[in-house]
Amino acid sequence: MSTPALSLRSAWARPARAIPLGGLGAIVAASCVLALLSLLLPTTPTYDPFAWLIWGREILHLELDTQFGPSWKPLPVIFTTVFALVPDAAPDLWVAVARAGAIAAVLLAFRVTRRLGGGVAGGLVAAACLAVSTDFVRFSAIGDSEGLLVALVLAAVDLHLSGRRRAALWVLFAACLLRPETWPFAAVYATYLLRIDRALWKTIAAMAVLGAVLWFGPELWGSGDPFRAGARARDPNPNAIAFADFPAFEAVKRMLAMTPWPAEIGFVALVAGWIAGLWRDRTVALVGAGAAGWLLIVAAMTEAGFSGNARYMIAPIALACVAGGVGWGRATRLVPRIGPIVGLALAAALLVSPAGLLPDDLRAARNEARLMDALSGAIAATGGAERVLDCGTVTTGAFQVTALAWKLDAHIRRIDLVPTVPGTVFRSAPEPRTIPGAPVLVVGDPRWRPVAHVDPWEALQACREGLGVPR
User: Fold this and answer.
1) CB neighbour class for 87 (10 Å; exposed up to 12, middle 13-18, buried from 19)
2) What is this structure's pTM?
3) pLDDT digits (tens, 9 = 90+) for 14-53
4) Residue 357: is it exposed, middle or buried by C-beta count within 10 angstroms (0-12/13-18/19+)?
5) Sequence spans of domains, the chain
6) 198, 192 in Cβ contact below 8 A?
7) Is residue 174 left, alpha or beta, with left meaning phi > 0 and alpha meaning psi from -120 to 50?
8) If DSSP codes are grouped into helix, strand and coil, which group holds residue 72?
9) Out of 10, 38, 42, 214, which could bridge 369 as a Cys pair, Cβ 3.0 to 4.6 Å?
10) DSSP 17
């Protein structure tokens, strides 16, 4: 007797927990290939990644200086130190890593959701919700590390489901080198594993020591203050939600606003099903609790003075998307035959609105790439990096400090925000093509003379004696 073909419902809704582990390798390979192909599009890092590139270059030359710039993050700088061996390609290589992480995160959202019982329909909902969540594409396109963070967290969940607990712990340790919010989750998971296998205590202790060295050692070397990163993170921009009347509440509102509606509806369905006793899967519950717990950590940090930046919300949003996808998948299986199809169609309809924001994200990434390319042209038109540095101080807008330092092969502290004579000023025109919200420098001192214009940049100089530029 022949085996009957799988029904449409079973093909789209089965839990599929036994997905082979080898799929992780395929996801990594596909993500890397797609990320490298994406470099054919306009590409540039943004503020934080340029700082990581500078620090990688400085470590390679044994002259690390972290007194200025964003908060230190060990994992990106491990990559950028290696990339510093090929400095001309380093920015593109890091952006490729960040984009590969984001692509893998979307693929893993599908895979993990399906393995947790959301089926194909739930997996598609989770992956789509993550991809269209506010700023996910933009952050990834310009080299921020949040996509890579999500990929590592979801890979750890996937490895746990496959019974590869030690591998899951190491992947979670890598995530701990990106954001401190990951530390409590890694500690809980390590404690859980230690109860199962006492022999792990040496590995866990080594991870704790290595993590402390990688987080605090470079700051001690580069700034003399091992806790500078935390102090810097508690010095947010004036428009940060940390300055709101109730910062923690604003953090929760921000995450809810950034999360697509289908994920929120699915999350509610998952919780309702749990309360009603329709499913009581512990791993699924932990993913949902992880999303809520991560949000609470971010909210508490925001209340304590951290910025509450939208980037901090990406990881809990990703977990909420997975939990929401599981909720969609399991809820639609309660309706025979047509449930998965109806659920998928409804989710797709609800995703139309957030997906409409993607062109704006891509346009912002393209504009930033063009701005940074034009900055290179403005430096060349001014006489090159050596002449600019010889002229005196170097000044630009706050959001372009690290990019200018990278392109001038200088320390971040070499770039000022307030023009002083002698020196050079690079200012971008107040046009929509510039980075939204970037400050524009206005110099009223007649000693400053325009020496170059590469749209949208203008360079002004008042140089030292002997450089041929009026003082």
Assistant:
1) middle
2) 0.90
3) 444 445 545 899 999 999 999 999 999 889 999 999 999 9
4) middle
5) 8-356, 364-462
6) no
7) alpha
8) coil
9) 42
10) T
